[in-house]
Amino acid sequence: STLDSLIGQGKVLMLQERYDEATAAFAECLEVLGEHGNKTDLAYAHSDLSEVAFRKGDYATAWRHAEESLRLRHEARSEWGIATAQQQLAQVEHKLGRPGAALRRVKESLTIFEHLQAKRGLADSLLLVAAIAQDNGDTGVTAQLFGAAESLLDSRGAQLARPQRDYYEKAHLARARAGLDQQAWAAGRDLSLERAVLLAQDYAPEEH
């Protein structure tokens, strides 16, 4: 269908970092759907627009689309969708320097993703808590959380295509891995899913 074609095109363009073209494809999805379109499809389109805006550094637009996605997900009663939208809002809060608000949202997402056993969603949330911990200088927990997220991304349940996995490596893992304790990182990779989620849920920024 036209909608599926536009979504696929937008995702490929986003991975190629052709963000303006990706935005145009996802915006066309909204036009195809119209304001009375299926709530789930509309939520996906807003979620994709939020993600591409976030990658461009346009945090106001990323927030607006994630907020609309969250509203639609609540109306559709989609647990996974609610968790995804909250995680998107949390990553914007983090970039805007609001770690407390970001942690509250991402921990809500973690609870839902763990219940659903959604490995990619869990990995995204662990990466965000790791980034918040890193900003606060809490290097031990940072390394463990990055390691745990990497293990999840490499697990069969994450179902990541190679270009998507490469994006995670470039955007999140490579730079962090180079600057953190490798023993702690390896310990994080060895954590069970339950222990990794508990580590993230229990994290509170230390005063330095």
Keywords:
11 helices, 208 residues, single chain, mainly alpha
**End-to-end CA span:** 54 Å
How would a crystallographer describe the biggest sheet?
none
Averaged pLDDT: 94
Low-pLDDT windows of residues: none
Q: Quote the beta fraction.
A: under 5%
Radius of gyration: 17 Å
Total strands: 0
Please estimate the helix content.
Answer: over 70%
Query: Which structural category fits the helices and strands?
Result: mainly alpha
> What is the tally of helical segments?
11
Tell me, what's the shape? Answer: globular
Order of helices and strands: HHHHHHHHHHH
Explained architecture:
This protein is mainly alpha-helical and 208 residues long. It has 11 helices and no strands. It has helices at 2-15, 19-33, 39-56, 59-76, 79-95, 99-116, 119-135, 139-153, 162-179, 182-189, 193-202. It starts with a helix and ends in a 6-residue tail after the last helix.
Compact summary:
With 208 residues, the chain is an all-alpha fold. Helices cover 81% and strands 0% of the residues.
Task: Give the arrangement of secondary structure elements.
Blueprint: H1 2-15, H2 19-33, H3 39-56, H4 59-76, H5 79-95, H6 99-116, H7 119-135, H8 139-153, H9 162-179, H10 182-189, H11 193-202
Helix pairs in contact: 1-2, 2-3, 3-4, 3-5, 4-5, 5-6, 5-7, 6-7, 6-11, 7-8, 8-9, 8-10, 8-11
